[in-house]
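Supplementary Methods, section 5.1.

A reviewer requested that the exact input to the structure prediction be made available. We therefore reproduce it here, unchanged from the version used in the analyses.
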Amino acid sequence: MRSFASYISKHLASFVAFILILLFLNTVVYSLTFQKIMTEDYRNSSPQSMLEMTADAATPEQLSDNMIQKLRQNHIWAIYLNANGQSYWSVDLPDEVPESYTIQDVALFSKGYIEDYPVFVWNTNDGLLVLGYPKDSYTKLTSNYYSIAALRRLPIFVLGMLGSDVLCLFCAYYFSKRKIIRNIEPIVSAVETLGDGKPVSVCISGELSKIANSVNKASSILNRQNEARANWISGVSHDIRTPLSMIMGYANRIAENESANKTIREQAEIVQKQSVKIKELVQDLNLVSQLEYEMQPLHKEVVRLSKLLRSYMADLLNTGISDSYIIEIQIDPDVENAVLECDARLISRAVNNLVQNSMKHNPLGCRILLSLSQTKNIPQLIVQDDGVGLSEKKLQELKEKPHYLECTNERLDLRHGLGLVLVRQIVAAHGGTMTIDSKINCGCKITLIFSSTDSIQNLT
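The structure derived from this sequence is encoded cell-by-cell as follows.
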C-alpha cells in the first residue's frame, strides 16, 4: 500500500511541478512579448522620438526635407503654431484639421486628440510643434500613451497563452494518466482474475513491483489452497469408492436372495438405490471441483449438436424409463448442421443432469422436451418440462443463493442441487451461460446458450 501511495504521490508531485514550470514560462513569455511591444512604442519611431527629431529639424520658415520624408514614412502629419495659434507651416495636414487655434483649443488637444487624430505636442522657443498620428493608432491618457494595436493584441495574446496552457495541461494529464493506467492495469486485471479464484502471475518492474509481488504471493497461496481442496475432494471420492462398492454389492446380494425375509430384501433395495445416489453425488462433486479449479481436462472435438442430442435421446430411452415420462426432441432446421467444439461427454452429462432433475421433481410423471434452436446464430439447447415448476421465491433463491459448495457461512445450508451446479460449470467451461425460467404448475425451462463465437460454425 505504501508503494502505491508513493507511486501516486510521485506523479502528483510531477504534475504540480509541471504546472509551476508552465506558470514560470508564461511569465517569461508575457514579459518578453510586452517588452518588445513597449520597446516598439518607445524606439526611434515612437511619438516622443519623432517629436524630438522634428523639433531639431524645424524652423519657423520650414522643415527639412529629410524629416518630411520620415514623417510621411510613418503616416504622420505635422503643424507648427506660433504664439498666436497661427500656422508657420504644415505637412500633410488632413482637410478636417484647422490651421489656426485659440489658447483654449491648444489646452484641449495638447493632452488628447484633434478630430479623432491622436496628437503629440512639443513646445519650442518659436512656438508649438504638433504631430498627428493616424486615427486608432494610439489611445491617449492623461499620464501616458499606449498603442491601440498593442492593446488589441493583448486579449488575443491572453487567450492564446490560456489555450496553450490548457493544451499543455491536458497533454500532461493525458500522458500521465496513460502511464499510470499502463502501469496499474496489469495489477487491476490480476486482482480481478484473482477475485474469480484463478491463479495469476504479474511481472512489473519499478515502483509497483512490491505490489505485483504481493499479488503473486496471494495468487500462489490461493492456488495452493484450491489445489489442496480439489485434491482432498478427489481423495475422499477415491476412498469412498471401495467401501461404497462393497455396500452396493452386499445390498444387491441381499436384495436378490429369495430366502431372505421380504422386509430385509426391501430394505436392501433401498440401501442399494441410496448407494447409487451417493456414488453419483460423489462423482458430481469430484467433477464440479475439477471444473471449478480448471483441473478437469476438456477433450474438445467438433461435434454436431443435433447428432449429440439424438444420441443422448436414444441412450436415455434404452435405459427403460417409466412410461409416466414422455420424452420428446425438437431440432430447428437452421441448426441441423450447427457444430460446436466441445467435450461431448460433458455436454451429454449436462443434458442428462437436467433431464434427471425434471424426473426427480416430478415423480408422478411429466412431459420433457429437448430442443435445439438458435438466435442470432447462437445455438441454444433447451430442456423444459410441464411439471410442477418452481415458485417465484424458490426461483429467486435458485438464482441468487449460493450452493453449499460456494457458501461461506458455518451452516453450509444446501441451497439447491449439485446437478445444477455441475451443469453451470460445464457450460461455463465451454464459454456459455445457463438461464432458468419457471412458474408454479407451469413447468421449468432451462436454456444452455453457447455464445463462444470462436467455436461455433455451421456445416455446409
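Residues 192 and 203 are 16 Å apart (CA to CA). These observations are discussed further in the main text.
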